[in-house]
Design brief:
Chain lengths: 282, 369
């Protein structure tokens, strides 16, 4: 079986700071990581590789040349092949243009070896759109399975897969045919540690680096900023409310006095809340 | 090459953007649509929230607001259409077909795409639920149009008559406003509870126009089969999004044992318990109690935050609460920048004192009544 996992290198958004004056992202010193949701996808692919002999896992990313680091990391976890799709022409792509490029690259991959499963992350932590996965599936006409919490069975002879997926209000158990595209839900697994062997292999392993021609882009008008229907018209910091919290006087007060002062203020200024709370508290 | 998925907004384009003339083929696209999501006999509240928002957009544009209902026969599709009218829709498109009894990507994508192609709306809104996100991504790709996910604000850009969709990016550190120029429809998803729920106005005089449509697909066309649906056990589940009062705790409480103080206060108030992400990650409470950007959006009448710093990712999930009381021992904690009331102090002492004060107050009120 051949599995392709789409990963994206993202800035670790927990460490991102916004410049207070220019409202731009200060990326200096912010580490680039593999999108955490993509690690869930990669781990699930590696688990299938562990239990189905002859399975190969290819990781694919579209990004700047530095995204090589993300691919090497993926190799160190146990992926077999890595492809970096990189070209200035991809710059500024929104989700529609990104899914076009990734779908094209997967078609190129298929020319060498048919693809049975494609994994993507549920969403990225920088773009956060959760659309590239469904977009790629649609373009490649793959059955789409989003928010998968568990792969219950996979029958390669019948080419049939059964999964559990999160739906509104419950879990759907769905049976479909491979090839399909799966996005994994958080909490479904946890990334393994890289083995020594794989770490050494990852450092030396040759990456395939594809520009837009190698990636099989047929219509250059569909990639990058040109191929993106959406444009960002404005970027701004979430405005701080102008009113600061009204502080309850705590100087030389006991907790009890503070609490009493809080309550009388609350109920004086928001009389309806009292009835509301009395109703709820029963 | 570093700019992808809107992750780094192409700021150069932001300044001095010119008015864009719409492609003549696209001028025919008129009207605002809301996809009406339902499950087990009830419409998802996010659809009503979107109709409220859609009404405003439609009025700004001077066009009609339509709902789209897709259901299996016997699933009260027509009733959902009527209800959509109470929430402001002028008309509804209704597809009823047995294959729509469970959500599956293929038939829903076909149904919605066909409707769009035939009736050509300029704006199409969906809830950013698991269903909405699955469907919106497929529909936008099929239609080759722009889709802005997880918006927190929608308005019309007067210059271009186009949808200006604002959404958080970089984990909420920044907001960006996104336009879809020269592609129609302009699609957007919005998370539940981000928009207020409009007040329904059952109006007996107005008749809802229902435009039926056929799906043109049979079960054997569809590869994916739903073998089983395992409903969530809602009994012990937190109902955070609709709670009127929420007591939430953060990492400042230090350990799971101290977190019980949050539960104690919640119990006295008949409130739900919420938490910041580190609390959920530490396993002190279940995931469905996380408030914030990657958790739930809430809008209670009263939100009490104890030991929560007020990081932007938490803030975006709760800043629309009517009243916010923040307890934090750091007078410079960001939460004091947007809370209604602040108490600078040790949550381990303030929480029990508040619990006792509320208990006594409520007991007195009960006696008096
Ligand atoms: C992509 C992404 C998504 C995220 N999504 C979410 C989300 O959905 N929800 C969320 O909450 N976070 C989210 N976060 C995390 C967020 O950035 C913050 O790290 C988190 O909200 C901080 O939680 P906290 O306030 O409980 O902890 P801390 O930031 O550690 O703050 C603890 C606070 O407690 C105070 N304190 C300490 N001791 C006491 C005491 N004895 N009494 C009173 N106060 C005390 C401290 O002064 C401090 O202000 C996300 C982050 C990222 C990168
Ligand atoms: N540039 C990219 N290269 C490879 N995969 C990507 C890229 N962008 C997005 N993806 C995949 O699509 C998923 C959803 O991304 P998004 O729609 O940006 O939230 C990610 O988790 C990745 O698996």
């Amino acid at each position: 079986m051949h599995i392709v996992v789409c990963i994206k290198q993202v800035p670790d958004s927990s460490q991102i700071r916004v410049h207070p004056v220019t409202n731009t992202i200060m990326r200096q010193g912010v580490p680039a990581i593999i999108n955490p949701y993509d690690l869930l996808a990669l781990e699930e692919a590696l688990r299938l590789k562990d239990c189905i002999a002859g399975t190969t896992v290819t990781v694919l990313t579209m990004g700047p040349p530095q995204a090589e680091d993300a691919l090497r990391k993926a190799l160190s976890f146990g992926a077999d092949h890595a492809i970096l799709v990189t070209d200035r022409a991809f710059a500024g792509a929104d989700t529609l243009a990104t899914s076009y490029a990734i779908a094209a690259a997967i078609r190129q991959i298929e020319k060498k070896e048919p693809v049975d499963l494609v994994f993507a992350g549920k969403q990225t932590i920088d773009g956060d759109t959760a659309q590239v996965g469904p977009g790629v599936a649609k373009r490649l006409n793959l059955n789409l399975l989003t928010y998968v919490s568990k792969i219950a069975s996979l029958d390669l002879d019948k080419r049939e897969i059964i999964i559990h997926r999160r739906a509104e209000g419950g879990v759907q158990v769905i049976q479909t045919q491979i090839p399909c595209l799966i996005t994994m839900l958080e909490g479904s697994n946890e990334m393994r540690f890289a083995s020594m062997d794989n770490m050494f292999r990852a450092a030396r392993h040759p990456l395939q680096i594809w520009n837009k021609d190698a990636a099989g882009i047929e219509d250059p008008a569909k990639i990058g900023l040109k191929g993106s229907p959406t444009v960002v018209s404005k970027v701004f910091a979430p405005h701080a409310k102008t009113i600061k919290a009204e502080q309850i006087d705590v100087e030389r007060k006991t907790s009890k006095e503070i609490a009493t002062a809080m309550l009388s203020k609350l109920f004086r200024e928001h009389p309806k809340l009292h009835a509301e709370i009395a109703k709820l508290a029963g | 090459m570093s700019e992808q998925n809107q992750s780094i907004p192409p700021v150069k384009k932001a300044a001095g953007r010119k008015k864009v003339e719409l492609d003549p083929r696209l001028i025919a696209y008129k009207g605002v649509w809301v996809f009406i999501e339902h499950e087990r006999g009830e419409v998802h509240s996010v659809s009503w929230e979107l109709l409220g928002e859609g009404r405003k957009l439609a009025d700004m544009l001077g066009v009609e607001l339509a709902g789209v209902v897709m259901a299996a026969p016997g699933e009260s599709g027509a009733r959902f259409c009527q209800e959509a009218g109470f929430y402001g829709a002028d008309l509804c498109y209704l597809i009823e077909d047995p294959v729509l009894s469970d959500y599956r990507n293929e038939p829903f994508t076909k149904g919605l795409t066909d409707l769009v192609n035939q009736y050509q709306p300029e704006i199409l809104l969906l809830g950013a639920t698991t269903l909405g996100r699955d469907l919106a991504g497929s529909v936008a790709t099929t239609l080759q149009t722009g889709l802005t996910a997880d918006c927190t604000g929608l308005t019309i850009d007067p210059e271009n008559r186009s949808l200006a969709a604002t959404r958080p990016t970089f984990g909420g550190s920044l907001l960006c406003t996104i336009l879809t120029l020269n592609y129609r429809p302009q699609m957007a998803t919005v998370r539940p509870r981000v928009m207020p729920t409009p007040i329904p106005a059952p109006d007996t005089h107005r008749t809802m126009r229902i435009i039926p449509h056929t799906l043109g697909m049979v079960e054997t066309d569809i590869i994916s089969k739903v073998l089983q649906f395992i409903p969530d056990n809602t009994q012990n589940k937190a109902q955070l999004p609709f709670a009127d009062i929420i007591v939430a705790g953060g990492r400042g409480l230090k350990n799971a044992d101290n977190f019980k103080l949050v539960w104690n206060l919640a119990k006295v108030l008949g409130a739900e318990v919420g938490a910041s992400r580190p609390v959920v990650q530490a396993g002190w409470v279940d995931t469905d109690r996380q408030v914030g950007q990657s958790g739930k959006t809430v809008r209670p009448k009263l939100y009490i935050a104890a030991g929560i710093s007020g990081a932007v990712q938490h803030r975006v999930g709760m800043e629309d609460s009517d009243v916010i009381i923040a307890i934090n021992n750091d007078p410079n904690a960001p939460i004091f920048d947007f809370a209604t009331y602040g108490i600078v102090g040790n949550a381990m002492q303030i929480l029990p004192a508040l619990t006792e004060a509320f208990r006594q107050n409520l007991a007195a009120a009960r006696l008096a009544s």
